[in-house]
Amino acid sequence: MIIAIDGPAASGKGTLAKRLANHFGFHCLDTGLLYRAVARDVARNGFRLEDAWAAVAAARNLDPRELEDADLRGNAAGDAASIVARIPEVRAALLAYQRNFARRPPGAVLDGRDIATVVCPDANVKIFVTASPEVRASRRFAEFEARGSAVAYETVLEDILARDARDSGRASAPMMLAEDAELLDTSNLSIEAAFDAAVGLIKRKISH
Ligand code: CDP
């Protein structure tokens, strides 16, 4: 059983994926962390993020056990990830790990940008989680404040818009709504309400 959750930055897909995995007793993979870790390793090895050769090498040598780093959750890491994520060979190098993870019994929830379209086109359930850019920026802003990092709301909103453009506009596996995905707009939904709506979608889908 595979549940694919895609959506833009700060749409709530990560929180939703974790709660769904908990609820159903499934494994959970935040695929954004893989791209964030690749960008971290490129910088750690002393290369520029735009250096495709260094990014591909980092992706091929990525140790998935090294994803727990707190720095990977920051704003800068997300931006850096979206730069290396444009490189097709980086995406290709991360594909086998994601697909193997998806097959772990009894089931897996993966969240990202291209899960329903590229990584697991045969997923049993596909959900595209979204929310208005302003709502997403407010959520991210609140997360940063809670962690004590001082970033202005306007900066967070600008970053979100820039990342949306980069993720939707790239040639390789752009972020998009899969034909057979269910759209879940969380602009006016609490975490609890979004979770309930997703469980409802999943139950309807698997009872067919
Ligand atoms: O949590 P947030 O949505 O801000 O970011 P993330 O899911 O950790 O993703 C960070 C960046 O990695 C995205 O902006 C994408 O450029 C890239 N990414 C991707 O290309 N494909 C995925 N399956 C997941 C992330």
Mind explaining what this structure looks like?
With 208 residues, the chain is of the alpha/beta class. Cytidine-5'-diphosphate binds next to helix 2, helix 4 and helix 8.
Write the layout of secondary structure elements.
Layout: E1 2-6, H1 13-24, E2 27-30, H2 32-44, H3 52-60, H4 75-84, H5 88-102, E3 108-112, H6 115-119, E4 125-130, H7 133-146, H8 153-169, E5 182-185, H9 191-206
Parallel strand pairs: 1-3, 1-4, 2-3, 4-5
Q: How many discrete domains?
A: 1
Major sheet size, sense and barrel closure: 5 strands, parallel
Order of helices and strands: EHEHHHHEHEHHEH
CATH topology: Rossmann fold
Cα(first) to Cα(last) distance is 14 Å
Bound molecules: cytidine-5'-diphosphate
Q: Estimate the global geometry from the Cα principal axes.
A: globular
CATH architecture: 3-Layer(aba) Sandwich
Compute the gyration radius: what is it? 16 Å
Q: Which features would summarize this protein structure in a list?
A:
alpha/beta, Rossmann fold, 9 helices, 12% strand
Write a compact overview of the structure shown.
The protein is built from 9 helices and 5 strands; from the N terminus they run βαβααααβαβααβα.
